[in-house]
Design a protein that fits this description.
The complex is a heterotrimer of chains A (538), B (307) and C (308).
Chain A: H1 2-12, E1 36-40, H2 55-64, E2 69-71, E3 77-79, E4 82-87, E5 93-98, H3 112-123, H4 133-137, H5 143-147, E6 158-162, E7 165-169, H6 191-197, E8 213-219, E9 223-228, E10 243-247, H7 251-259, E11 265-267, H8 273-279, E12 284-297, H9 311-320, H10 323-331, E13 336-337, H11 361-374, E14 384-390, H12 393-410, E15 413-419, H13 421-429, E16 435-441, H14 448-451, H15 468-479, H16 484-497, E17 500-512, E18 516-517, E19 534-535
Parallel strand pairs in A: 1-10, 14-15, 14-16
Antiparallel strand pairs in A: 2-3, 4-5, 5-7, 6-7, 8-9, 9-10, 11-17, 12-16, 12-17, 13-17, 18-19
Chain B: H1 2-29, H2 43-52, H3 59-73, H4 87-122, H5 127-141, H6 144-158, H7 172-202, H8 205-212, H9 217-229, H10 231-246, H11 249-255, H12 260-270, H13 273-301
Helix pairs in contact in B: 1-13, 4-5, 4-7, 4-10, 4-13, 5-7, 6-7, 6-11, 7-9, 7-10, 8-9, 10-13, 11-12, 12-13
Chain C: H1 5-19, H2 25-35, H3 37-55, H4 75-78, H5 98-134, H6 136-151, H7 154-164, H8 169-196, H9 199-206, H10 211-247, H11 259-268, H12 276-303
Helix pairs in contact in C: 2-12, 3-5, 3-12, 5-6, 5-8, 5-10, 5-11, 5-12, 6-8, 7-8, 8-10, 9-10, 10-11, 10-12, 11-12
């Protein structure tokens, strides 16, 4: 309900929220050492806001560049370059008032023109951004047409009224539009610098940002080093420096380096959380993370396994899949068993009441056996299916456990098929699978980012699930004053059709040094800003 | 000899071309492309990307422009994944790192391996031999992905002497563990090959003759036995060096050294075509050079071989 | 050209050798092999390990893929090796009987090693011997082909093979075997180059023996020593290669496993108290390797004609 309240405040007039930087409580003794070393699974692929495509990229870019709004520790918006905004009567024109004192690290002022340049650049086919569709998702006027090459970037519905006033026109009212502005792909870039250096502008020495940090060093695959920027408007409140991200591809190696004191934050390998929690109660943490894990069925006509087109078979498989074992025996990191698709912690989302989520596992197994027998499968005629998953230890553990569950309880012969990531994806896109592992992470903190996926018109709906009622509900939700009930209803339809087997909702399971403060506690997208962090003296 | 080397180098060019075409075709035959993601890109976005990277062109065209880029500007193309870098930069950054710890490991492996093998051979069937053989087998049966975490556990976590990872521009403390992890199994192989070949040479007639002439044993070994017994070792060195370069992926993964080994496997898995090709060609080039060096060494050691 | 005293000596020895044709050289070899204690011990170990690999699962409390869900959540405390529970080697981190899995994994590893090494020995020896013996342009071309193939980073080829044809054991054999004959060929060629100038080869040539016959009769037998040693280096190397592929996550299809896969898993969990998950597979891995090495050395000593 919090989200609704916030939005109605936004709709009423102007948004004015207190600025938050490193919010050090009074009287806190800060540690002398304010260096922060964090873990990155992969190398940073790009530091160009419009090119950014991975979590590692955006984590770094959020420190180097600042967008219109930032998020606080609970996922609420706080002013960044924009101080506030107004919305027109028809809810399709946003006017942002920019902070006059904001500066680039080369001394230039940050202007509305920088945003116009960056946004056009995002949509421009010549940039070939993988996130070009974000303009379309935000419904910015002409965004889709520009990306498709039908219109010129200059025709994008974004204008600089003056240096500190930015106007954005969108196609239809979009209640969560402001929330989408924290995505790095709509962060500004300095036109002069980009044009001067071309693709090299993101290199250390060339990089010019408007964020709380400047780029000191970046060695792809090894590390990125960022230092406090003195030209940042809120530099007085930036405490952490230098901030170093280290790429360590092996989670266990990363944990070792954490224990050796080389990292201040790292991830916990699957299954190790209970032990670490016991040993280091102040350091092991688990917070909700807005991703959902599922097995999808290939429901496309003429493809996949015909037996799986029978809803009773799908139900039987889902019932017999013991989520508690997946969560408590395999992952063991505070993940939650899932019986519905949308992550439980999404802002403003009410979990649907799914019948079988209340049953005991024994009841589910009983029902599963009955359903499967009804569908004509039994010891004489066992159900034979394959499950595709991509190469990863955790996926493999879950797949072989599920294989055993189905075999031990139902006599189903499931063959897990391990494919390398690109092949797995390619097979899913081509509809060349019977069942497949899939996961989705929220693009923004609202349920539609999950539910839109299974609409029949969605490009990512590899299950080829199609239900007119479901589609209608989602379309309705786009304009409804309160889309909440629509979302809940859609979830119920999804569960009734058993189009997918939701398995669990993610949690971010980390080891964090106890003196490190200011990390987000309730931000389901796990968006963090280095400028909010600080270390206390011990 | 000189003209032989020139000839071999000239032959290297078509070799590299064949290698290029072969890997190019293999790569494009693999399912999935650089822009295949779980979150599928909308068709217009994909079209823009393909246009930008020339993937919308027919294969032969892509290949021609790739070759032309190399010939005309020594440009191996852009990375499709690391979008603000090109292949030259990626190699220029990763290769010196790998070369740095790789060549140290190579020297360590060769010197200690040959030493171990020779000692074992001249003291055949004594406890020295057994210990040397034991060490070399022990070192060989421990895969480096077991070795690496053990080294880190002991030297970084328990003793705290060395950092658990990172490269820091090749600071000595960051080089030691990667070198040990990489060198041991090659050292073991070299020791075993040296030992068996040395044993063979020691029973050969020219060594017997040398002994019969009354030369002291160490002179027999250094002057007459060592050189011929190194032939099989040398055969092993060319491929071993290249294998160390590509096989450094374990080191890169455990110690986060940022070398070319990891970049190589990543590029294959990510379908980063140009990077993949660039590293393949680099490794191919190194192989050719090393094979040539091996052949030259052959001729030097065994004057009966003529080219 | 004046033959050196050494070469004369060698020639004399060869000639003398050819006169003694009482027993087949292979009988001699067998006798010599059986006299070598380490080699016999290695052979014995290999038989034991193979017996375990092929029949061990019969004595296991459950199959290699059976998960005991009641204990899989706390393997550290409930899955220790124990005679009472029948899990002699404990449970793996998924709650499966490690005894059964080690047996099954050893089987896969031994098969991969043997098949891979055989392919590489047969193909590599013939190829290298022909190339080195024939020499000239043929040698050039044959070695360039090897260069090209060697210059293709083999991990990529294996990844591609596993990717395009799906993961299967036969693909793994093919990939590993086909790629490893290359260095074998180079080594054999190097040896052949030195052998080729020996007098007994020249004598055979002078006598008008056909080239291929010379290769099979005179060159290959003289290479057996080095080939045997290299082949026994290869078997463990194959097993190691397989484990490396497993480490990258591209190994045999789960729930099947291999020693490499088990070790890789065990090494990852090494610090978390479940050390038995590393120790048992690693022990079998090492014993298998030791055994192959000893047998290889024994073979070398037994087959080396120069020792006669």
């Amino acid at each position: 309900m919090k989200q609704r309240l916030l939005l109605s405040t936004i709709l009423s007039a102007t948004l004015a929220i207190p600025a938050v930087a490193a919010n050090v409580p009074e009287g806190t003794a800060l540690a002398e050492n304010q260096a922060y070393n964090y873990w990155m699974l992969d190398a940073i692929k790009s530091l160009d806001p419009q090119i950014v495509s991975s979590v590692e990229d955006s984590d770094a870019v959020r420190s180097l560049v600042e967008g219109l709004y930032n998020e606080d520790g609970d996922g609420n918006l706080v002013p960044g370059v924009a101080l506030s905004h107004d919305i027109s009567e028809d809810l399709t024109t946003y006017t942002f008032h920019l902070r006059p004192e904001a500066k680039w690290s080369n001394g230039d002022p940050v202007t509305a023109g920088d945003f116009v340049y960056a946004w056009r650049r995002l949509a421009d086919p010549a940039t070939a951004s993988e996130y070009a569709w974000y303009m379309e998702l935000m419904q910015v006027v002409n965004g889709a047409e520009i990306t498709a090459g039908e219109k010129k970037p200059e025709e994008l519905g974004v204008t600089a009224i003056d240096d500190h006033t930015l106007e954005v026109k969108i196609l239809a009212p979009l209640p969560y539009f402001p929330k989408m502005l924290t995505h790095t792909s709509v962060f500004p870039v300095n036109q002069k610098v980009v044009e001067q250096f071309g693709a090299d502008w993101t290199k250390p020495g060339n990089f010019v940002g408007n964020g709380a940090y400047t780029l000191k060093d970046h060695i792809v695959g090894e590390k990125i080093v960022m230092e406090k920027s003195d030209s940042y408007w809120d530099a007085a409140h930036t405490v952490m420096s230098p901030v170093t991200g280290l790429t360590i591809n092996d989670e266990n190696a990363a944990l070792t380096r954490y224990e050796a004191g080389e990292l201040d934050r790292t991830t916990v390998p699957a299954g190790q959380y209970p032990r670490l929690k016991e040993e280091f109660p102040d350091e092991a943490t688990s917070t909700p993370y807005s991703c959902s894990y599922t097995y999808i069925f290939n429901l496309a006509e003429g493809k996949g396994n015909e037996a799986l087109k029978d809803v009773r078979v799908r139900e039987a498989l889902s019932y017999a899949l013991d989520r508690d074992i997946v969560v408590n025996n395999i992952l063991q990191g505070g993940q939650k068993p899932a019986y519905s698709w949308t992550h439980w912690a999404m802002n403003g989302f009410t979990m649907p009441d799914i019948d079988y989520s209340h049953w005991t596992q024994a009841e589910r197994d009983e029902k599963a056996k009955a359903l499967l027998a009804e569908a004509g499968f039994g010891p004489e005629n066992p159900l034979k299916i394959t499950l595709n998953y991509n190469t990863s230890e955790a996926h493999q553990k879950i797949a072989v456990a599920v294989q055993q569950m189905w075999k031990q309880k139902l006599g189903v012969e499931m063959t897990p098929q391990n494919f390398e990531w690109k092949v797995h994806t390619d097979k899913m896109n081509a509809g060349d699978f019977e069942m497949a592992r899939y996961a989705w992470c929220a693009d923004y903190n609202e349920a539609s980012t999950f539910l839109d996926l299974w609409a029949s018109y969605s490009g990512n709906n590899d299950a080829k699930y199609s239900n007119a009622e479901y589609d209608a509900l989602l379309k309705d939700a786009k304009t409804a004053a309160d889309p909440g009930p629509d979302y809940t209803k859609a979830e119920e339809i999804l569960a009734k059709d058993m189009a997918i087997i939701p398995i669990y909702h993610y949690a971010k399971v980390d080891m964090i040094k106890p003196d490190l403060k200011g990390l987000p506690q309730n931000n389901v997208q796990q968006t963090w800003y280095a400028k909010d962090l600080y270390r206390v003296a011990q | 000899m000189f003209s032989y080397i020139i000839k071999r180098l000239v032959v290297a060019i078509p070799t590299l071309l064949v290698l290029m075409v072969l890997s190019f075709l293999l790569m494009h035959a693999a399912p999935g492309g650089p822009f295949t993601y779980e979150k599928k890109l909308p068709p217009e976005v994909l079209a823009n990307l393909n246009a930008k990277y020339g993937l919308d062109q027919p294969l032969w065209r892509q290949m021609v422009s790739y070759v032309w880029g190399i010939i005309a500007h020594f440009d191996f193309g852009p990375s499709f994944v690391y979008k603000d870098r090109d292949v030259n930069e990626i190699i220029a950054q990763g290769f010196p790192v790998t070369l740095h710890y790789g060549s140290i490991a190579f020297v360590v492996a060769v010197v200690s391996g040959v030493l171990l093998g020779v000692i074992a051979a001249i003291r055949q069937n004594t406890w020295i031999d057994y210990i040397a053989v034991g060490i070399s087998i022990g070192a060989q049966v421990l895969p480096n992905f077991v070795m690496a975490p053990i080294l880190v556990l002991v030297f970084a976590l328990w003793l705290g002497w060395l950092p658990a990872g990172g490269w820091e521009g090749g600071e000595l403390s960051h080089v030691i563990l990667p070198v040990i992890a990489l060198a041991t199994s090659y050292m073991a192989s070299i020791a075993r090959i040296t030992r068996s070949s040395m044993l063979e040479v020691l029973t050969s007639n020219h060594v017997r003759t040398a002994r019969a002439k009354g030369l002291p044993e160490h002179k027999v070994i250094l002057r007459h036995a060592l050189k011929p017994s190194l032939i099989p070792v040398i055969s092993y060195l060319g491929p071993a060096f290249v294998a160390m370069i590509t096989g450094s992926v374990v080191v890169d993964m455990y110690f986060s050294t940022g070398g070319i080994g990891k970049a190589f496997v990543d590029s294959a898995l990510n379908r980063d075509y140009a990077v993949m090709m660039g590293i393949t060609l680099l490794v191919g080039f190194l192989t050719i050079i090393f094979n040539l060096l091996v052949d030259i060494l052959y001729a030097w050691i065994d004057p009966k071989i003529r080219y | 050209m004046v033959l050196s005293a050494i070469d004369m000596g060698a020639l004399a020895e060869r000639l003398a050798m050819d006169e003694v044709k009482g027993r087949s050289p292979w009988t001699d070899a067998r006798i010599r092999f059986m006299r070598n204690k380490a080699a016999v011990a290695g052979m014995f170990l290999l038989i034991i390990v193979s017996a375990f690999a092929f029949f061990g699962e019969m004595f296991a409390v459950s199959t290699y893929d059976y998960i005991d869900f009641s204990r899989s959540g706390d393997v550290l405390h409930l899955g220790r090796p124990s005679l009472a529970s029948g899990n002699y080697f404990g449970l793996d981190d998924q709650g499966r009987d490690l005894f059964a899995r080690t047996a099954q994994g050893t089987r896969i590893s031994i098969i991969v090693g043997l098949v891979g090494a055989s392919i590489s020995v047969i193909v590599g020896t013939l190829y290298g011997a022909v190339s080195g013996y024939v020499g000239g342009r043929t040698d050039q071309i044959m070695m360039r082909i090897v260069d090209i193939l060697l210059a293709i980073p083999f991990m990529f080829v294996i990844i591609l093979l596993l990717v395009m044809f799906g993961r299967s054991l036969s693909m793994l054999f093919l990939g590993i075997g086909l790629l490893s004959w290359l260095s074998m060929a180079r080594i054999v060629r190097g040896q052949t180059l030195t052998l080729k100038n020996r007098e007994f080869i020249q004598a055979a040539q002078a006598a008008g023996v056909r080239g291929f016959t010379i290769i099979l009769r005179h060159i290959v037998p003289n290479l057996l020593g080095i080939v045997a040693v290299y082949a026994t280096l290869l078997v463990p190397e194959m097993i190691l290669t397989e484990s490396f592929i497993s480490f990258l996550g591209l190994g045999v299809q789960a729930p099947l496993t291999s020693l490499g896969d088990l070790i890789s898993q065990g090494a990852k969990n090494m610090r978390y108290g479940t050390i038995w998950q590393l120790l048992f597979p690693l022990a079998f891995f090492m014993v298998t390797m030791f055994a192959f090495f000893f047998v290889g050395d024994g073979l070398r000593d037994a087959l080396d004609p120069k020792d006669r």
